[in-house]
Amino acid sequence: MQSKKILLVDDDTDLLKLLSIRLNAAGYETTLAASAEEAINYLDISRPHLVISDMQMGGMDGMALFEYIHHHIPTLPVIILTAFGTIPDAVAATQRGIFGYLTKPYDPKILLNQIAQAIDLAPDVENIVLSTPMPAWRKTIITRSTLMEDLLTKVALVAQGDASVLLTGESGVGKELFARAIHQASKRCEQPFVTINCAAIPEQLLESELFGHMKGAFTGAVRDHKGLFQQAEGGTLFLDEIGDMPLVLQAKLLHALQERVIRPVGSTQSIPIDVRIISATHKDLKAEIEEENFREDLYYRLFVVGLTIPSLDQRSEDIPLLANHFLRVFAEKHQKDVNGFAPEATGFLLASSWPGNVRQLMNVIERCVVMSAVPLISGELIRDAMQKDAEQLTSFEEARRQFEREYLVKVLKITAGNVTQAAKLAKRNRTEFYKLLQRHQLDFTMYRSLQEKV
What we know:
single chain, 454 residues, Helicase, Ruva Protein, domain 3
């Protein structure tokens, strides 16, 4: 078994070395930091199993170091050593989350006992996240960032329970990837993982998609339809862009989560459900609550556990790792003999900002692989691909065209190609509806085969 790693922090180098010798003799591996600031620098690149810090130090003191650790690495235990401790101080410290609080001169046996307890009770990053072989759920997330490793430790812990999880972060950071990881690491991994983008489905259809509907429930409902809650039974339902869900449906979702039952549109019978909910948003839901766009009671139902996924700019050390991964994937996909980046290309990738995060990086690398005529991708090709990527913001007209087509396809599926019923469902007259179908080159007769499956 590998030695457990302990970070020792004290501005008295003699005491620091003495404590290190004692802990090394007890079988622990120690790293020494002569200040809290030096300790924080170390934590940026590595993770010990425990931190033992002196209280009184020049600059940042031990309590300030604990507050930093508690905020950024809440699963990392801290033991404080002080020459000026009192019982009230010890009580206050433990109430704030410090694992141990010992007054100098301390009893070495008591310290070793506290160290053993702290390491036994704290989650082990190496066993949970970095175990060998790597768990299947972990393989899809590529990183060497300590920030991401902390997040993955939390993912492993969250997956062990069944609480609702709210994922936040900028667009393109990989929220669905993390939702899948939580599902795959959980006891529900053999059951369905079902996703829905709450912003991509028209309000009129979203309730039916979530809860299902009965035949005849509304004009165009030509057959019973199982909603996503029923499809995800026993597994996980991922509600992406939950911040865009209409208020009326928020109330119905809240009822489903509270009562653990759903009622399909047009039904008088409630159906019990066993589904874990993971939701995600790039919006500030607290701000949405203030503006009365989001229900506060639903927020607290969804936000039992909250995980924030860092932007790519916050994990820039992962850019070369991800770029090389995408290079291999797309070289195989497009059957191109491309196997690396020129030095100036890597430098440009690292120097660039990534407002579109991992999704943008992936798109840029694929474009470069497709366009490259030589085995090494050049810096010029990277610059050209990023410039084109910035120019490819979808216009309002194109976005509306895509939305219209997706909406029409959905309505035709629901009505099995019955134009009269589809037009009523869309609240358009038949002539206008036919024009919409022609504009998008949709053949309604192709959807009539769905009727045969009823």
